[in-house]
Amino acid sequence: MTSVSPSPTPAGGAAVDALLDPGLLEGVESRAMGEVRGLRRRAEQEEVNLSYTRRLLQGRLDIVRRELQRRAEHDGRSLVDLLPEILAEKGRGPAHGLGRHQTVQPAAPEVYESWVHGLTPDVDLSDVAGLPDADLERAARALAAAEGSLSERRRGVQQVMDALAGELARRYRSGEADVAALLADEGRH
């Protein structure tokens, strides 16, 4: 009998939940400039964290799927021999990111690594080639489901970032905000 693992905490946990709260952006046009900038920085940090987590998760998923494919095709090469092919960007479809330039690093990468590891608690992925097909298939399903959910949450955070950036841009265009004050404020940080 296969054990059923509890659903993992959604990617990004409470910090992302707070950003995805529909009420977060209500009345944003009347909030103080510093508050809007602070929300934008929070959203940017969480987007970076989610992007990092997605890359970790996708790497594991690519390896598991390729091992299943190797077995199905009776490919005599070892998984280690296939790693360059697995990890090459050419092996994946087109990127679905928005091409954002990231100036922020992931906070506490070990937390995201632990989250990804926890997606397959009953399947030790440290020896993928030694696992039975059923375990690999279960791991692939769990990782794929988590990747879909994570990507959806990441898109939501990106929409919040865009809304906040749009509000900041609106204020500068309308003259409600002063670029000199922004530069002075940035110089203090």
From TrEMBL:
InterPro entries for this protein: RsiG-like, RsiG-like_dom
Residue ranges constituting the RsiG-like domain according to the UniProt record: 27-87, 123-182
Stored CDD domains: RsiG
Pfam families (UniProt xref): RsiG
Highest taxon in the source lineage: Bacteria
Protein known as: RsiG-like domain-containing protein
Organism: Geodermatophilus amargosae
